[in-house]
Amino acid sequence: MHSKLLFFCLLIPSTLSSPPNIIIMLMDDMGWGDVGVNGNWAKETPNIDKMAAEGMLFTDFYTANPLCSPSRAALMTGRLPIRNGFYSTNAHARNAYTPQTLVNGIHEYEELLPKLLKQADYKSKIIGKWHLGHRRQFLPCNRGFDEFFGSGNCHFGPFDDEKTPNIPVYKNDKMVGRYYTNFTIFKGTGESNISQIFLAEGLSFIETQSASKNPFFLYWTPDATHDPNYASPMFHGKSIRGRYGDAVMEMDYCVGKILEKLKELKIEQNTFVFFTSDNGAATYRRRDGGDNGPFLCGKETTYEGGMREPGIAWWPGSIPAGTITHQLGNIMDLFTTSLTLAGVKPPQDRIIDGIDLSPVLLDQTAPIIDRPIWYYRGNEMMAVRVGAYKAHYWMWTEFGDNPVSFTFCQGQYIKNVTVHDQVNHTDSPILFNVNRDPGEKYIIPPKRREYKSAMSVISPVVQLHKKTLVPGVPSLNYCDAAVQNWAPPGCEELNYCLSGPPSQPKLCVWDH
Question: Nearest-5° angle of CA 184, CA 188, CA 189?
């Protein structure tokens, strides 16, 4: 893959005097079916839909994990969570993330995208939710970013600041307040101006870097579409889908303003922008969750609804407008593709799972790149997709008693597919053609010729993957109430440092 780097760089438009600016817009818990271009009936995303009309729509774009923290770790490293350590071995196939009790974060030896982009003199900023470790050594400005405005954790709360501290909001390496107490979220009504603050931070960064003629990397990752949802007054109560829809409408507005700013500054032809989400919509939230389109289940699961995401690439003058690709893409590809566009080689001393999508983005005659999509849940490879076929080696939806009722698959039940017990199908994987059966409803019988033909291709891919896999040291095993956000950097200046309990580390409990 890396040997083709020079050739692919030749595809980048020769009119550019410098590497393109890079903007990754990562939504939180937004489903494939939440955007109008993918068929959402509420029509709440005119700007995102316009972005697709002016760029390239990926119909088959995936995250690397059905939960927030591991997927974000995969984006920043270009590596599966099982390799970069963002998983847990506390129990088999459990989803794990970074609550504020988590002891660890992203490993120091992992090479993150913003640090690598410094080789090409990029200035970088993350705005919004980090979620790769909230303790000082794991925060963005200590892991390669030049600037940071947002939080190390999600906006859960409000808390009492006694048993649990409220989550800090940072400007660069210092706390500037906490959610709920300083950055208001009215949980009862779902009203907050935080998304507008994140937007203003993004627009200011773009203006500053454009004026300085610096190539820049903006990682814009708001979390308003994550529970508890919030929206500013101009969007509050506007959506027919309730608070979640209000948040989606505001995200769409922000996307439009960012793209509008690029055009205003006349740098749109030198800026690569990608829009996607960290995992599928949280169907367990019912009317307060998002839409995963025709796909089965949602967040927390390795069915299509949990891991297939909206994917839109935009780069006027370079990416042909109004194009649709069925290339299998993954959030890890944004790592490798960004480095290629910047003229930076990916690390050569480790396996990089993300592939370079620049040939697909920049050359409409380029063939589809043959690659697998891995569906991991914690420490277990649950499924793999190769071409049109997806093989489930393990099946598990969630714990439960009612055989036909599932929290993560609201209103969806498929016999022998949605299950409460972990079922090992390694000897005879459950196979679907997800091109013609995106809802994973119709199992292809093992005796059928189609099954044998598909598995003859899939099986060697899985065997090679498992043979060469060296799991990273798990980062998500230990929790301790003492490491919560009691006294974040900068709390002294605000007179807002809190006292925590003595340290008592223990194994984290992951229920699903």
Answer: 80
DSSP conformation class of 136: G
Q: Decide if 68 is catalytic.
A: yes
Q: For residue 120, which phi and psi values (nearest 5 degrees)?
A: -110, 20
Cβ–Cβ under 8 Å, residues 25 and 231: no
Catalytic residue among 2, 9, 131, 155: 131
Q: Please state, in angstroms and as integers, the Cα–Cα distance from residue 466 to each residue in 82, 168, 461, 462, 463, following that order.
A: 11, 40, 9, 6, 5
Terminal Cα-to-Cα distance of the chain (whole angstroms): 35
Pairwise CA distance, residues 488 & 502, whole Å = 16
pLDDT in tens, 416-454: 999 999 999 999 999 999 999 999 999 999 999 999 999
Q: What is the 3-state secondary structure (H, E, C) of 318-355?
A: CCCCCEEECCCEECCHHHHHHHHHHCCCCCCCCCCCCC
- CA-to-CA distance for 158 and 279, rounded, in angstroms? 24
Kindly state the greatest CA–CA separation across the chain. Answer: 70
Element (H or E) spanning 377, and its range? Answer: strand 372-377
Is 131 noted as a catalytic residue in this protein? yes
* Alpha-helical regions (H) of 118-220: 194-212
**Catalytic annotation, pick one of 2, 9, 68, 512:** 68
Give the separation between CA 38 and CA 40, rounded to whole angstroms. Answer: 6
**pLDDT (mean) for 390-418:** 93
Share of the chain above pLDDT 90, in %: 94
Which uninterrupted H or E stretch holds 452? helix 449-468
| pLDDT tens-digit readout, 328-370 | 999 999 999 999 999 999 999 999 999 999 999 999 899 999 9
Distances (CA, A) of 396 to 73, 90, 416, 421, 512: 23, 17, 10, 6, 10
